[in-house]
Specification:
7% helix, little secondary structure, 121 residues, Pectate Lyase C-like, single chain, 1 helix
Length: 121
């Protein structure tokens, strides 16, 4: 019986990068708390529903990424490329966006610190 790699509830950085490099893009619902994905090119990755609490995504290329429903509480997204990324219904409380590229980023239903919805800013 073959195991489904998407059922794994957690994955380390090395395994994620290895699978991404091999062509896998679907990493839904993973537990990636405090993962260090700094300076990586993860264009088009699907991290919908993933728990990225306190993740380091500094200078990571997440253009065209699907982060729908992800948890990014306390994550570092400084200098991150989020061009055309989907951040719908994402929890962005205490997230650092310093110098992040949010061009054409979809953020409907996302919440920030104090419950602020970025679509009304």
């Amino acid at each position: 019986m073959l195991s489904n790699p998407l059922i794994s509830s957690s994955m380390n950085t090395r395994e994620l990068v290895s699978r991404y490099t091999a062509g896998q893009r679907d990493f839904r619902n993973l537990n990636l708390i405090a993962v260090n994905l700094r300076n990586l090119n993860l264009t088009g990755i699907n991290l919908s529903g993933a728990n990225l609490t306190k993740a380091n995504l500094t200078r990571t290329n997440l253009s065209h990424a699907n982060l729908t429903g992800a948890i990014l509480v306390g994550a570092n997204l400084s200098e991150t490329n989020l061009t055309k990324a989907n951040l719908a219904n994402v929890n962005l409380s205490d997230t650092n966006f310093r110098e992040a590229n949010l061009s054409q980023t979809y953020m409907r239903g996302a919440t920030m610190t104090d419950g602020i919805n970025p679509s009304v800013l």
